[in-house]
Fold:
Amino acid sequence: MKKVKIVCIGAGSFSFGLSTLVTLLHSETLRGSEIALVDRDTEALELISSLAQWLNTSWGTEKTISSYTHHQDALQDADFVTSAIEVTPREELWQKDYEITLKYGLRQPYAENGGPGGFAHAARNVLPVLDIAYDMEALCPDAWFINFTNPMQRICATIHRYTQIQVVGLCHQLGVGYAMVGKALAKDLGFDPADDFLSTHASKENIIPKHRLGHLSYENVKILAAGLNHFTWMLELRHRKTGEDLYPLFRQRWQELDPKFEPLTREVFDAFGLFPIPGDEHLCEYLPWVCDPVTKPWEKYDLSLYDWKERANARQEEWSRIHKIISNKENPDQFADAESEGAIEIIENILTNGDRIWEAVNIPNESYIPNLPEGAIVELPGLINARGITGLPVEPLPSGIAELLCREITASHLCVDSVVHGDRHLALQCLLLDPMITDIDMAKHILEDYLDTYR
Structure:
């Protein structure tokens, strides 16, 4: 097999860069290949490059490691490009996206991927991502773009709608669905019910029990989910070994859980008949029933905001820990079990024609979900082989769910188009279609404030 070149842009990403790099380094399939690391943060780039060189030597993986501060210098003849970029300072900007709308009477429940915050977040990332994709068209037109940047659907739609580059988006949110299923079915499947798993919120105290339960559940059951990123729905639930349909049992056990556990998910499940995968933390971003200033549904559903300060501190603590490990050359094998985010599976199976099914890929819809728009970025299982990534078709979604998803798709496309063309009218239309916006003047004020603040 020929040696390949993989470019990792945003290599210093706290959420995705490190795990992606380690799994690439550990791959025997990629022995002798080149990994080009790119990050505009020179300190983060130097740290992640030092880690890569040390692990490459310690593990004897025979990769060629290079580093660059600009993607254009790295892209020539690349076969795969992973991207986990974010305009910085991420948490500070996210918090500002949230606080600006408070001035106009809108309390967003999360403000990352949906709502006006999703618009602002996408608007920051669309043009930098498009610059990468345009340069790929010139320097490596056949390479795959593997995206980790949020808002996932909007970023992937940007690449698909405005370039010829092949794009796939990867996200680990399906793991949250597995964790919730595991909590409900723990006793039936024979493992600890994890009474310490209290919420899907991305807080420090929830991460370990959520991941543990998600892994246990994955070993025992198989979820078929489809929809949009952070907005997918469980279509089937089966025992992974016997194929037994576990959806009826899950419905029963879910009702037996404490109603304080994921109360918004509970309401939506009851109303629409299919279980929403993302958990309250992300589900709340796409619904019109979470922002009423009179009824304050965020209190009823305990919709906690992201802890911006804690997560920024956690990133710094992680980099400090890695710096210490590299300085002391402490046990490289502590990285050997890094959890894959899916990039290595895509790369290896395209290269080896592996026919691997990955349970959640974000790709352009080619009638995979029949009642969602063609070309829209949908999330569903995909078959990975030398031909690329092919979605596994599902039945049409229930009409009520499809309508919620179609509205989000249209708003997303208006967002992307408004940024690419610099069109305020399209930007306003995007906000007016957003389920959180209830007043035209509110939308106008929020848009103008975002534009003034971030110009």
About this structure: Residues 42 and 69 are 7 Å apart (CA to CA). The mean pLDDT is 95.
